[in-house]
Amino acid sequence: MSNEAHEPESPVLQAVRLSKHFPVRGIRSKDVVHAVDDVDLELHRGRVVALVGESGSGKSTIARLLAQLMPPTSGTILLHGSDATARGRRAFRRYVGRVQMIFQDPFGSLNPVHTVRYTLTRSLRIHRGRLRGHELEAALDELLDRVQLRPTERYVDKYPHELSGGQRQRVAIARALAANPEVLLADEPISMLDVSIRLGILNLLKDLRDRLRIAILYITHDIASARYFADRTMVMYAGRVVETGDSESVTQDPRHPYTQLLIRSAPDPDDLEARAHGARGEAPSLVRPPSGCRFNPRCPFATDLCRAEVPPLETVGEGRKAACWGYSDRDGRPELGSVLEAFGERPTVEEPVA
Q1: Domain ranges of the chain
Q2: Residue 36 has pLDDT above 90, yes or no
Q3: According to CATH, what is the number of the domain 10-237?
Q4: What is the DSSP string of 266-311?
């Protein structure tokens, strides 16, 4: 057996120290919103990486940066190890032929005045040339069959409003597949769908991953679906990655205090008392984010070190990292424990006496 068989496969798409700052509008304002800061990310063929975190943590911004729908403030995007920055229309078209995005709202991402046939035909002609006649019909049939819209003749001439939410999302996925991409950037692809059909879309994406060996970035605030669908999970807080690792380990044994709270925030019908626990305070302003660890104002273990310096991603297990000084050997590091025990129960508000 050759040595190449033992070498890990190089990433298809890679972000290196990716940052995005948005200027704050206003007269002579020099403030910026630190939406994303120094994020490293790798996507491999046939693998799914989940990016999880609360609203405003920077997840969708990363997807748009990787899709090159906006330029980064700093950092590099690599495609097969080479700088993939698209300079000009032709370069951008070549790039989107390999990296496609699936948006959150399938009704908003499909033009309501055009049929499924028009939507898919336009995508096929952009990425595969001017198909006509039998070749075009065969390609349309193949795309709809690939996303399990069968029989295909039932859907090809429908308008978006004639389809269910799940069917519309399947059409949006088919449109992305028309390019024969190597990477799919799925920005909360099931959050706008009924609970009853979410699993079907995830199973479809899993099938595409396995059959076509597509690399997938799955963005979600639902960490339970990340455990089901993704091979690896990255947790974001206030524009920074705070924990990474295989999905099973991150969800079952979270190491960063924020990840612990994120996991415990999922409703548990067997532990109704858990509602009495939770982080105090609010997410920080990204215009003037806290110095040091951005979670320090809400963390019960924070020390002066946490408030002074940004923690690097420390190794906390095989293939796992967490950005917390508690895992370092620095003087003044915090002593970590159970976040839920540290917060304790929320104080109850006494009823006014009549």
Answers
A1: 10-237
A2: yes
A3: 3.40.50.300
A4: S--TT-GGGGG----S-PPPSSSPPSSSTTTTT-TT--HHHHHSPP
